[in-house]
């Protein structure tokens, strides 16, 4: 014997697969799992044996869906493994009992549809097996004959049925093929017609885009760099010779002028001076090229001067700040300037060796840099490109727009359809590829158009009311203007206001503040003064404390310190004091009176009636008094202020859809007791806010999970509270517990299978419920008893006396 | 085996021993025959089968639709694959056939020219095999469950008939009348069996849970009433000693006639000493038995532990007669098995059941059939190679390559 050993993990895996497949509850097997299962069975016949046992145990389960799946698996293996065939056929009678109901005492288990399917598929499978293997496996033949002769299974019918099915399938396939061919032909024809058009449109659109947005490469083909640089060189040299003679003082003046007149020049120089390799110009806003070219021209004249200035004067500190914004100008100019600078350097080298180091330092200093080691990277993210529609490009844009529309509405869908058809039916790969290329072209065009962000020219809209808008609209003024700003007094023919009167009119407080603001440079002493002395955290308080601790000399210091404060307070609160003098003092409450020292608060005294007789008086006087005191104190300490809000009537309704088609008419402020939080709803009662929708749907899910109608509106906490208050069990806890228990019990092991234990609502059940109800039984029994009693009474009612007398 | 042969050659071994060893080996290796079939003749269940004693060649079978058939079970064609052909049969068109189910069939032990059938139409018929005409008919008051002819009888020619009444009838073929009536049972008699050793000894079992041993020479009463407790327990006053707790519907003697085996509806098999009438108290375990009619048991002949073949629903169980050990279970029928018969010359077993099949169980000891198949396929390969595919391909695994990935 072979010393083959079953791998435990593989066995477990098999068991898992079997369980998974058989409890899926679906009429067909999952091919992937089945494949892996077969793969294990393939390893050796031992695994086949294991599989056989597993499947037979599954087949014995009292659920037709499990049986059906198990049977399907058996069929798969039966067709493949000899070992499995042997095993199954050795126990074929049992198998027949379990699949085709040969034993009438053990009918197939409940789900009717599954059992029917199982039976029919088993019959056809057995018939197929017989045809294929019947010669070799005697028992199979016997079984087949048994079914045929004893069970009167019409295998010929099954065979013919399967043949019919096959024929039908064949016909169906042919039909589908025909349809596919037709579609293919159609698409090809369509493609022949339309592909040219589409390609034309694409090229047109492309050229249109090129005209509107020429790519940066196109610019610099015509303007050769060498020319400009040569010009520059001469210019620079010239300027240099000129500027060498300029003195320091003059140059500074020059620089000032430069600053004022052209910022662009500065920028250019900065560009030239900063030897940044990162300065890549990927600017897509090529429209500004004209502007730049003018700059270049200017630059020829001035750059020399500037560089000299920079060399002599190092006051260009603010230049680098401008860099970032403006350095993103033009590649050409930059390179040119770089060149010019390098030239300069060269010349410098020729003149003097020391000059080089000086120059480097200068460069560093100009940019406020410490060394060259800085690596300044500038992000050149192209911003949102937008294109203004103008008269010049209007026609172009119009054609582009037309193309866009055409592509979106017509070409794109058709091309998509083509691709679909080609991939589905066709096997012409090159054709599909070409179509896909066309599609990508279209996509790129569309995206380009979308990126372009054309700002439509709104001139034609305003054309109509152009004449009306000639005048600027001015807000109307109505005659008398009481306030005349001081600087306009002259216009109105008034004398300028005297400053004294002005100061008089203004109140003291603002004045103080202004003075403080204007003259108010921050100073320590002032801030110290401003802080109140009481606050122990402030510096002043600490000073005071220290001074008090120290000797008498410090007393004068405190005086001087505190002196300036006094007039200030006096001046500030003089008016208030006056008012306070006049104002009557009204006691507001005991607690406010004793705000600062609540301990001193006293409870109102309880008057002791000493003079009364003890009979009338309160016996436990002392205790009562103290208690009363405590209560009184507490009452005094508390202050209740009733908030008197303004009543706003509710203007909205819940409007949640009701089952009868109407909306909930409740008018609650925040929450409807039936439908929860009140939210915005549309005409059909559906929530409009996406947040609400999400929360609602999640709520619904919760409800579905609990699936208990009562628990939907029952609030367990609230109910518990009510129960606690009433002392009556309303069933909240019971329901909860029950629900929990149910949930545990209900959690089915195999949720995919149909539940066969489920009690069906049949007429028999309903009748049973009615007839065998306890109360009904009782009633019937009582009636019968009554009848019996009556009978007995009629018969023997009069015998009582005799009975007694006989004794 | 070789050792046996060698010793036999040397004359050290009794020829019986060799024969016994080999037949035992073969009997223990019974399997459903792959190369022998019995031709199906009837649309009814097989209720009873019998093999003639003279040639051990003809298989007589009675069906539930009143028909009977005789098959030739000796293969004289030279082919390994063989289907037992019907020699003759009493088909449904035969005007003399039983009107209802045949319950029991029996060959005349001395000649294959006569056989007997009995059935639920209360008739016992004696047939002339050659003409298929009943030469004699006996009517009884109730359904005839079983009848039997003594295999060793020389001095008498009696047919014991157990029928629905409590009286066991003896039909004398010589006189052509039911000569005796044996009174002793209290209810219908399901099974009767002559002893293979003593021509006058008869055993019968019935619905009254009793097995009686008769000596037909004394008409007074039963010779012995078999007691399952061997007198250890007080017997019931009404029924007397009982053999089982349920009706007895299977009885057979061992081939040497020393023991009697009874099978009851209490799912028990009991072995009795036929001389003393004592229960041998051998436990065969629980063998389900829920039929209310005759079940034909069979015991092997010439094996060193004799083997009991007993129908157990749709299977046939094999037991060691003297130890009660279960040897094997023969699976092949698709419905309950009614009868089985051991064919001693070739150690085959024939069985019939409600699935209308008569199956042949042959010893599966050698690979002769496989060899034959191989040669066959080779032959076919040479001649026509399209046929060979089926046989060879069927036996191999056909794992398709799509499981590779």
TrEMBL record, chain A:
In what ranges is there compositional bias, type Basic residues? 734-749
Q: What's in the GO CC field? A: chromosome
| Family matches, as Pfam families | DUF2043, UVSSA_N
Mark out the compositionally biased spans (Acidic residues): 340-354
- MF-aspect GO terms: RNA polymerase II complex binding; zinc ion binding
UniProt domain UV-stimulated scaffold protein A C-terminal: residue ranges: 581-689
Extract the SUPFAM superfamilies matched here. ARM repeat
Please cite one Gene Ontology biological process associated with this protein: transcription-coupled nucleotide-excision repair
Q: Where in the cell is it found?
A: Chromosome
Q: Which parts of the sequence are annotated with region: Disordered? A: 326-354, 498-519, 731-758
The domain of life is Eukaryota
Q: Which family does it belong to?
A: Belongs to the UVSSA family.
Q: Can you say what this protein is called?
A: UVSSA
Source organism of the structure: Mytilus coruscus
From TrEMBL, chain B:
- Single GO BP term: proteasome-mediated ubiquitin-dependent protein catabolic process
Q: Which GO terms describe its cellular component?
A: chromosome; Cul4A-RING E3 ubiquitin ligase complex; nuclear matrix; nucleotide-excision repair complex
The WD repeats lie at 95-131, 182-224, 241-282, 330-371
The record's section on InterPro entries has: Rad28/ERCC8/Ckn1/ATCSA-1, WD40/YVTN_repeat-like_dom_sf, WD40_PAC1, WD40_repeat_CS, WD40_repeat_dom_sf, WD40_rpt
| Presence of keyword Repeat | yes
| Location within or outside the cell | Chromosome; Nucleus matrix
Pfam families with a match to the protein in the record: WD40
Q: Does the keyword Manganese apply?
A: no
Which pathway does it take part in?
A: Protein modification; protein ubiquitination
The organism's taxonomy opens as: Eukaryota, Metazoa, Spiralia, Lophotrochozoa, Mollusca
The job of this chain, per UniProt, is described as: Substrate-recognition component of the CSA complex, a DCX (DDB1-CUL4-X-box) E3 ubiquitin-protein ligase complex, involved in transcription-coupled nucleotide excision repair (TC-NER), a process during which RNA polymerase II-blocking lesions are rapidly removed from the transcribed strand of active genes. Following recruitment to lesion-stalled RNA polymerase II (Pol II), the CSA complex mediates ubiquitination of Pol II subunit POLR2A/RPB1 at 'Lys-1268', a critical TC-NER checkpoint, governing RNA Pol II stability and initiating DNA damage excision by TFIIH recruitment.
Protein name, as recorded: DNA excision repair protein ERCC-8
Source organism superkingdom: Eukaryota
Q: Which UniProt keywords apply?
A: Chromosome, DNA damage, DNA repair, Nucleus, Phosphoprotein, Repeat, Ubl conjugation pathway, WD repeat
